[in-house]
Amino acid sequence: MRPWFDKNCQSCHGSGGSKSGAWSYNSDNYESSIKKHISHLYQDVFVNKSMPPGGLTQAELDQFKTWYDAGYPAK
Ligand code: HEC
Question: Where are the domains of the chain?
Answer without folding.
Answer: 50-75
